[in-house]
Automatic annotation (TrEMBL):
Coiled coil: none annotated. Its main location: membrane. It comes from the Bacteria. This is Branched-chain amino acid transport protein AzlC. One of its GO terms (biological process) is L-valine transmembrane transport. GO terms for cellular component: plasma membrane. InterPro entries: Brnchd-chn_aa_trnsp_permease. It is found in: Cell membrane. It comes from Anaerocolumna chitinilytica. Keywords: Cell membrane, Membrane, Transmembrane, Transmembrane helix, Transport. It is a multi-pass membrane protein.
Length: 237
């Protein structure tokens, strides 16, 4: 009963944090399932891609790769460019997941942009198990995406509508999360750094190649800031 209470308490604390993700993933997951279905890949493929690959934007790109001539090197390069940001996510989560226990491999496996934005900025409430809290945030976000994309695949053959522009939901979701964390945080140095470094990299490297340079620049600036800042480290907002 004690374990059941611990997990129930952690679930109730984690679920409200994931509601914005649920809203965004519902639309995007449906869109992805429809897209897979319209290209001849049934709901089983949507389920497998979402549950095994679980890489959001890269899954949309993968639809094009699946329907194009086989080009493994091109596919590898595109996947690296689209998902390279996760290398930096992993580095920034070393302290956060330290001593988390046996669930650590799962937390690493399902770490996506949206989960990172929540876990990196939130701590378990008083009396709530830290590991269970992070687990439910990660699991719920993962479940939302897999369930929505599978359902989209199931309904793809039965329902037809124009999904053009629906992927803007992802951008809107990030804006909402960013604004929420900005309002909650007191130190906005890292947020301003992220915006400025991204703009600088975009101007120098263009829209197709700016992600990795921006991440490296952000990492360098925040590392120097952490080294010389004498107070508490900057929050993610």
């Amino acid at each position: 009963m004690h374990k059941q209470h611990k997990y129930r308490q952690a679930f109730l604390a984690a679920f409200p944090q994931t509601i914005p993700i649920l809203t965004g993933f519902a639309f995007l997951g449906f869109a992805y399932g429809f897209l897979m279905s319209s290209n001849g890949y049934g709901p089983v493929w949507s389920f497998l891609m979402s549950s095994v690959a679980f890489c959001g934007s890269m899954q949309f790109v993968a639809v094009t790769l699946l329907t194009s001539p086989f080009a493994p090197l091109q596919a590898f390069y595109i996947a690296l460019m689209v998902n390279a940001r996760h290398l930096f996510y992993g580095l920034s989560m070393l302290e956060k997941y330290k001593g988390i226990g046996k669930i650590k491999p799962f937390l690493i496996y399902v770490l996506c942009d949206e989960t990172f934005s929540i876990v990196n900025s939130k701590e378990a409430p008083d009396g709530v198990d830290r590991g269970a809290f992070f687990f439910f945030i990660s699991f719920l976000d993962y479940f939302y995406w897999v369930a929505a994309s599978t359902l989209g695949g199931l309904l793809g053959n039965a329902v037809s509508f124009n999904t053009k522009g629906l992927d803007f939901v992802l951008t809107a979701l990030f804006i909402v999360i960013f604004l929420e964390q900005w309002l909650e945080g007191k130190n906005h140095f890292s947020a301003v750094t992220g915006i400025l470094c991204s703009i600088i990299s975009l101007l120098f490297f263009g829209t197709k190649n700016f992600i990795i340079p921006a991440m490296l620049l952000i990492l360098s600036v925040l590392t120097l800031y952490r080294k010389f800042y004498k107070g508490e480290p900057a929050s993610c907002t």
